[in-house]
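hey m, so remember when u said the tokens were messed up on ur end? i reran from scratch. heres the input so u can diff it against urs
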Amino acid sequence: TSLQREANGKFGFSAKTTLALAQSLYERHKALTYPRTDSRALPEDYLPVAKQTFEMLADSGMRHLASHALTALNNNYVRPSKRIFDNSKVSDHFAIIPTLQAPSGLSEAEQKLYDLVVRRFMAVFFPSAEYTVTTRISTVAPHSFKTEGKVLVKPGWLAIYGKEAAEEVEGGKDGDKGQNLVPVKPGESVNTVAVDPKGLKTKPPARYSEATLLGAMESAGKQIDDEELRSAMQEKGLGTPATRAATIEGLLTEKYMLREGREIIPTAKAFQLMTLLRGLEVDELCRADLTGEWEFKLSQMEKGQLSRESFMAEIAAMTERMVKKAKEYDRDTIPGDYATLESPCPNCGGTVKENYRRFACVGKPGAEGCGFSFGKSPAGRTFETAEANALLRDKKIGPLEGFRSKAGWPFTSEIVIKYDDEAHNYKLEFDFGDDKKGEESGELVEFEDASLGPCPICGSEVHEHGSNYVCSKAVPTAAQPTPSCTFKSGKIILQQPVEREQMTKLLDTGKTDLLDKFVSMRTRRAFKAHLAWDKDAGKVNFEFAPSKFPPRPGAVAKAAAAKAAKPGAAAKKTAKPAAAKKAPATKTAAAKAPRKAAAGKAPSAALAAVIGTDPVARPEAVKKLWEYIKAHNLQDPKDKRTIVADDKLRAVFGKDSAGMFELAGILGNHLGGE
């Protein structure tokens, strides 16, 4: 699990991906030992093997690792240590370490994971890093202030991870031990030039990433209050290294969680499940101490203090109780701490109460409800009680963030309650603030807010209108019923709220400050940009800050060549209609040169066993692979999109099956240079 955590934090690999890569390095490349282990120690007779492993690394072609292995051998770092070699800390399998076989033909991802394991293996044998620490006590009136500085003297094991790791450990921010101190002699008086108090606020805990979630699962037993259960679960946690990745992937597949960049976000479905389990009084399924209790009883069985029959009888009784509770389940009567809304029902004026799934009218005192209700979690976003009150009071709320489409894409929208003539009741709708209905109906707009600044198109005033900032001449008003301008910009763009102050700045100076909460619709990754007025396009566009890293010379040359080629391409397009009228012979002469074929890449040994050893481009490799799959009838009869691997394909896939949409990516790992 620690390997999965580190790979997620360093490279963004999911737990499932890390486990698959480690399994491939173990089974296919024979480069790592058994990966499904939770041990962090080696057997006490493994010292000779450790030395041989260092010798292999020192003689390998991996120059970034070989020098450190040679240093360890020359300085006799590989020697007996109870911290490393301890039979009592070895379970069924020992810690993951590199084997004596130097790997070749690794994919980029496999190489990253292999390096991670090798660096950790070598680092445990290296000496500790040493620092010089300076502590200074400065006295100002009755107060004493402590300042600490820290300088790395001997890198020790940090040398293996390089300068970046040393800086991460050392720190360097104001107030950290890594900062540089102004030179002052002991007892010297100094002048206080300025005192700058900082008013800070506490922040809520960060969302889990896969790395921190794996850590929480691994250490779940430490959070149990009962000492006996905590002892039974010591170093157990929830699941095993082999099952934790599958548990996380299962929760993601069933939509109890979403992966947003590196963050794991619980969904409304997850909160509803927790409410359901607690309402049905089966909340032991939500607690880590259920695992602790079972581990404790299993240890009692080991010692002969509890019979197997008694343990299984308890399991059966608990299961029967849960099944009985589930059979009695009624979504409208699930107990819970539900709210009563202050705002009345818009249809009958009755009381609106929360239940397990909805906010529903229960009617006025002595009367039944009118049937009005709305879901607590439309499009995957759960209403707060205050939001539900505001929605009933104002018949609208928003724009609100956090909604998800059926395809899983985030979106922002206003929510409105409108009367439905067919249902003779009110219903909830999304309003995306496109303002088209207002324009078509001819309804005149009255602005109540102060102007934010002049419109960049026509110079008129810009105001807030629904979920947008609009020019006063872009919507129908009493002064001008027919719109004559087109300026409009959203209050939320790609999940980034655009505050009034930022829009004012854009109108005054041409662009906003650098905003950092945009989320790409394509990659779902956060990015930073300015919003700027694009005069040529006549709209607000992104303006990106200059890159800290200059582009590679090759990339610059390619961009220049592409730019130079554009006029010629345009000329060809212009000449095309005239060429069409000429004789066929002329057409042939004017025809475009054939497209240059993609350069071939040498296949790996595993792939060569399937498609041959000749260099081949990826599209041609995919074609040959499909010919092999069809010739050997390897498509799953129940799902033609799944390829069931034979012995040759198993070496290529690194697993027993693969989806048809994975093939191009898999082949990329087996073609040299890709």
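this time it looks ok to me. The mean pLDDT is 80. if urs says something different then somethings off w ur setup not the seq
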